[in-house]
């Protein structure tokens, strides 16, 4: 005579013999969430077309250019005296903004002067203004940002672009002082810039845009490029943008990153002048097999700075020729 079959019971007194039990994963009860804020409603795009179909007197006007307009808006750009920051400043001014370029030198560069004159000739309503500022000086950044906001009664766009690369040194030999300096400029400087700008936006109830210049180096490690502090700092900047975005999102202040890949600036060209074969190394690491030009960042900054991106926040837009896709 065979022994009786064992029965294993579960917590609900069902037996294994009854077959597998349905597993229901827990969720947060929907009724515990606060009431959602209403989505904006404007006669734009399809909504405008449908409205026009029902209202013959409705005047059809293209709105896409207007969404990118920065007419009468005020912006600050740190590290805007040259390179990527200067290109960003020119874009914002071309779109109609009054742009304050903040940088360390007591006098602006010749490149800045040429761009200021160029913007004046374009007569877009935008302009470039220069102010001396140090992004690692919290009270100083708060003061200059407040003065700009007070002058115009508003601050709409802030681009925290100032940053340094530092020396290329093997990890086991990297000077700690340089590590601290890079973190101070590239992370603390971005934090202090954003903090000052967001404070002005909040106090004036401005639906503003804050943009950080990060880098693809914040998401990947550059092959054969031994610059640990730089990659560490840029990864921190990406997370910093997400943290700011989550805190001020319900105030309609957007915080995003632009992460360029290898871009041909004058600083890059000077570096390649010493090591020209590095360009081949860098280019081979992206599907387009080339470096980017500074002007190829223009569309991205125009989008993020303008009302074309009103539902984009906490995002890292990588403009790197597909480098991070491999």
UniProtKB/TrEMBL annotation:
**Official protein name in the record:** Sps19p
What does the UniProt keyword field contain? Answer: NADP, Oxidoreductase
Q: Does Aminoacyl-tRNA synthetase appear among the keywords?
A: no
InterPro entries on file: NAD(P)-bd_dom_sf, Sc_DH/Rdtase_CS, SDR_fam
Annotated Gene Ontology MF terms?
oxidoreductase activity, acting on NAD(P)H, oxygen as acceptor; oxidoreductase activity, acting on the CH-OH group of donors, NAD or NADP as acceptor
Which intervals carry biased composition (Polar residues)? Answer: 7-16
Per the UniProt record, the lineage of the source organism begins with: Eukaryota, Fungi, Dikarya, Ascomycota, Saccharomycotina
Chain residue ranges for the region called Disordered: 1-20
One Pfam family cited in the UniProt record for this chain: adh_short_C2
Organism (species): Sugiyamaella lignohabitans
Please give the family membership noted in the entry.
Belongs to the short-chain dehydrogenases/reductases (SDR) family.
